[in-house]
Design brief:
It contains six helices and six strands. By secondary structure, it is an alpha/beta fold.
Length: about 200
Amino acid sequence: MFENLMGRNLPCWIHSRSDRWVEAILARARRCVSPCAGGDGLVQGIGRRLAGVQSTFEYGRLLVEGLRVTIVGKPNVGKSSLFNRLLRADRAIVTEIPGTTRDVLTEPISLNGVPLRVSDTAGIRETQDRVEAIGVSRSLEMMSDSDVTIVVLDGSSPIGDEDESILRRAQPQAHVVVVNKTDLSQAFELSSNGARVVRMSALTG
């Protein structure tokens, strides 16, 4: 099932993560090194050295620690059902009540020998509930730190402002859009906008 979600993008996402690692170190070097006295040349030299280890060190680190995959979406779109189906275990509590998941659940899984750390998160929405608001904040943090984000939409309901806000947040990142609940009558068609779109039912497969 995970193969259907990820398609052939996994190697690209691993290398994308590696590229961000190099860019972060170079940015830090530019801040720390004076522009005079050959500082620019030093940063360029660091860049060349990093390019040499990038494909070995960072790639190896990702294979050891795992690619961080975060499932996000507004409440009650089926994130926890998808999480359980990917794990093939009832790890997350699933009810019809929006906001059931209030914290992050993370479990390891392997895809073609590549370790992944898959996280289920609280539904993202505006809320006055203090505890739920903490969960939403953690969801957004996990989304920002994720190597790959899975955005889940409820295909049986029209896309709302919360869905669109989450899709905009995911746009700059490596992400997959899952249109869930295909076992029900569908309420919209979604253009890919550059992302992989997968239609499925987390309930029936």
